[in-house]
Here is the input.
Amino acid sequence: MRVFVTGATGFVGSAIVGELIAAGHTVLGLARSDAAAATLAAAGAEVHRGSLENPESLHRGAAAADGVIHTAFIHDFSRFKENSEIDRRAIQTLGVSLEGSDRPLVVTSGTGLLADGRLAVEDSVPDSPIPRVASEEAATSVASRGVHVSVVRLPPSVHGEGDHGFVPLLIGFAREKGVSAYVGEGRNRWAAVHRLDAAQLFRLVLEKGSAGSRYHGVAEEGVPFRDIAGVIGRRLDVPVISKSAEEANQHFGWFAHFAALDNPASSRRTRELLGWQPKQRGLIADLDGPGYFKARGP
Here is the structure.
């Protein structure tokens, strides 16, 4: 299968490219820069120049492929609503390009959109007002036009070598503030998955996923936030302390919502339907390795 992958040089997308090529697929990767194009070529993928903000480039990429995996997202939280709407339009464009065919479209979303504090399952419907829900709304919209679209929800922590997401942010806060903090008793939970396990799931959904289905890329249902903060404190040799909700707003700033997020999630149905079995090490073991605490340059 020739697969068009957006976000193909990103943290998750690059792992998907490797997974697809290893499984015998041909990858056409979206690249918005010369550096990204060189990275894709070195990985053995074909290069397609364009961006999420260039609908024509998305249309041409999808039209030239047997299936599409959409992982790209502009991760600038200062423009989160605007970027979520860009993602909505990108999914709609990809959907139009695939209409009238059985070619699959796999869209990326997050378990963090689901109800706080309750175990999220694949059939759970987003009830969050945060802008990122636009991606699932767009997937539902293109599905109503007959497009073979599936959604993969990723948890708050997708970890592994090269992680530049939430956990590195927590490490940065601890270095800056001199303490590793959690909110209240720190019992809130983050679901987690290793990037290589997530990549395998995207391939399985592309190959075997059912139209209109949602799948959870969750290897661990819920890692207590206090455990995450504890490893960070120990590795940085800084105190591990509790913050009240008000203090957390001052300590974490815009990230306070995520630090307090209680987002346990199940992937039982995903595993049963697709035979997906995560094999990589868990978040705490990965975090406690050398990769997350490499010495920083001057």
About this structure: The first strand starts at residue 2 and ends at 6. The chain is about 40% helix and 20% strand.
